[in-house]
């Protein structure tokens, strides 16, 4: 993809997403559910991998967890399924370029968010039927991470959500500027590592964290605790994706829309 056509490509993709939303909402919802399931299955494996090092007292346990999680975004991009966090960026560019209507942008965000949640819950339900993650000790890495997420101050969660989706949307945007497939995958994996290892808040990954913790019977995890994290994380993700990447790249590259 040429450097000058990246913004036009994203605007075209947003228009295509709007058309799919209008004409085949069921397929659109299924696409979102698939993305949610991919997030959940990769997170479950990432946690099992990290736990191997965590249980052994190795301080580098989170390197393994964060390093593997990029597989989820690579799979989502390759499969072209709908993830809420990147969808925010696409539709922001679509709306700013006049290719998408505001009402469809908001409808897409809501449908993809709910579809991602449905996919997460469906995978976790199937995993529960398969025996879950086994009997976990009270100090398991999953419970350790969730404890930190529910006890952080709301504004801290919000800003971590902003930073998270700034990085995630860059992990979608930057590879579009590269011609080599291996380089694209490497950049995605490394940028996802940046957000995950930094402890930033990804609302859809958090859905999977909380669903897995609930499935495993985590003691003391109340619904109010989950909302305390999910609301600011989601709002932060919207700001990071819409303003941090969508608006910024539109302002930087809108001249290319007239050039292509």
- Cα-atom radius of gyration: 18 Å
Order of helices and strands: HHHHHHHHHHH
Number of helices: 11
Distance between the termini: 12 Å
Helix % is over 70%
Number of separate strands: 0
Low-confidence stretches: none
Outline, from the CA principal axes? Answer: globular
Summed over residues and divided by their number, the pLDDT gives a mean of 95
Let me know the largest β-sheet.
none
Which class best fits the helix and strand makeup? Answer: mainly alpha
Sheet-strand content, in percent, reads: under 5%
A few lines on this structure:
The chain has helices at 6-23, 25-55, 61-79, 84-96, 102-129, 141-151, 154-173, 181-197, 203-215, 223-253, 255-259. It is mainly α and 260 residues long.
Can you walk me through this structure?
This protein has 260 residues and is mostly helical. Helices cover 79% and strands 0% of the residues. Helix 2 runs antiparallel to helix 3 and helix 5 runs parallel beside helix 9. The chain is globular and about 60 Å long.
